[in-house]
């Protein structure tokens, strides 16, 4: 589809108030799912993040890497086990998690951002004791529950004009490494950073009133509505912990949290720089 010069100008003019709103503000993007596996989508997401950075938005990218971890474990002949949707992580597995997340996945994203014209630095939760953790559940092994977050390193990187790319490996005072859920890390970091927004990229269009009907998208959810939506089964299964992370971020001071469809090209830009939106927005307050 070709745009005329006037149409292009109109798009830029419409984006102006949103650019002004987010200028010099922190936006945390939790990146995973299909948008991370599909190379074409990955290119588009990294391009979007560089664009936001260049117009003055301070983007913090928090990434997962479950499929890559599973693939690497398979290559060494180790089967992946899950309890309540969380990966059982013994000592050998946590070494693989650290290698894959803080190494291969993290540096590939940094490299791609830089190829797109951005400035990026890769970090993991162990760097600067950013994410301190303890065992969440003995059954899960080295799966971490966050005990403390130190965002000084992230703020230093942002101050120098770089995009921090953060893998979700934490540590404790004894030097043990922990695999930590990326949604949990993104929500906690967003709160500690006093971010304007948290954007969680998923493989669904957002929160649906009827999970089998995408036309029933709920575009706005007040935090006070969440318990009833859980009780009514609208929020169920794997969406419950994801929504709880959204609520946690709001309660920690993040102004808006979005669950968006990472399968849609440029969904981040549509959500931030237009009034259309492509997913579900969580805000504080009561539904009036």
Q: What labels describe this entry?
A:
single chain; 288 residues; alpha/beta; Carbamate kinase; eight-stranded mixed beta sheet; 10 helices; 41% helix
Lay out the secondary structure.
Layout lengths: L4 H18 L3 E6 L2 H4 L1 H16 L3 E6 L2 H10 L6 E2 L2 E2 L3 H25 L4 E5 L6 E5 L8 E6 L2 H8 L3 E5 L1 E3 L5 E3 L2 H11 L4 E6 L17 E3 L3 H6 L7 H13 L4 E6 L5 H7 L6 E4 L5
Parallel strand pairs: 1-2, 1-11, 2-8, 5-8, 11-13, 12-14
Antiparallel strand pairs: 3-4, 6-7, 9-10, 13-14
Helix pairs in contact: 4-5, 7-9
**How much of the residues is beta strand, in percent?**
15-25%
CATH C-level class of the domain at 25-206 and 253-267 is: Alpha Beta
* CA(first)-CA(last) distance: 41 Å
Q: Structural class, judged by helices and strands?
A: alpha/beta
The appropriate CATH architecture of the domain at 25-206 and 253-267 is 3-Layer(aba) Sandwich
CATH topology grouping of the domain at 25-206 and 253-267: Carbamate kinase
- Please count the beta strands (DSSP E, at least 2 residues each): 14
For the largest sheet, list the strands in their spatial order.
5-8-2-1-11-13-14-12
Largest sheet: 8 strands, mixed
Outline: globular
Q: What is the residue-mean pLDDT, rounded to a whole number?
A: 89
SS element count, helices = 10
User: What helical percentage do the residues reach?
Assistant: 40-55%
CATH homologous superfamily annotation of the domain at 25-206 and 253-267: Acetylglutamate kinase-like
Spans of at least 5 consecutive residues with low confidence: none
Radius of gyration: 19 Å
Q: How do the helices and strands follow one another from N- to C-terminus?
A: HEHHEHEEHEEEHEEEHEEHHEHE
């Amino acid at each position: 589809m070709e745009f005329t010069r006037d149409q292009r100008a109109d798009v830029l003019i419409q984006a102006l108030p949103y650019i002004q709103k987010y200028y010099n503000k922190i936006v945390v993007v939790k990146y995973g799912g299909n948008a991370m596996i599909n190379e074409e989508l990955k290119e588009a997401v990294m391009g979007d993040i560089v664009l936001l950075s260049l117009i003055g938005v301070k983007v913090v990218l928090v990434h997962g890497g479950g499929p890559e971890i599973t693939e690497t474990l398979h290559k060494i002949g180790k089967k992946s086990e899950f309890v309540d949707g969380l990966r059982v992580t013994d000592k050998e597995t946590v070494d693989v998690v650290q290698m894959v997340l803080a190494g291969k996945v993290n540096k590939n994203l940094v490299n791609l951002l830089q190829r797109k014209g951005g400035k990026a630095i890769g970090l993991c939760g162990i760097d600067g004791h950013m994410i301190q953790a303890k065992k969440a559940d003995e059954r899960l092994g080295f799966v971490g529950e966050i005990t403390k977050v130190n965002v000084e390193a992230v703020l230093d990187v942002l101050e120098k004009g770089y995009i921090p790319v953060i893998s979700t490996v934490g540590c404790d005072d004894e030097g043990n490494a922990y695999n930590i859920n990326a949604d949990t890390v993104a929500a906690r970091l967003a709160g500690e950073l006093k971010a304007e927004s948290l954007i969680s990229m998923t493989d669904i269009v957002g929160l649906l009133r009827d999970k089998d009907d995408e036309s029933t998208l709920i575009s706005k959810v007040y935090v006070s509505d969440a318990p009833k939506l859980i009780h009514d089964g609208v929020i169920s299964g794997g969406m419950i912990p994801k929504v709880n992370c959204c609520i946690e971020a709001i309660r920690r001071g993040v102004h808006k949290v979005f669950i968006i469809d990472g399968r849609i090209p440029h969904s981040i830009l549509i959500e931030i720089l237009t009034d259309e939106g492509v997913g579900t927005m969580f805000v504080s307050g009561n539904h009036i």
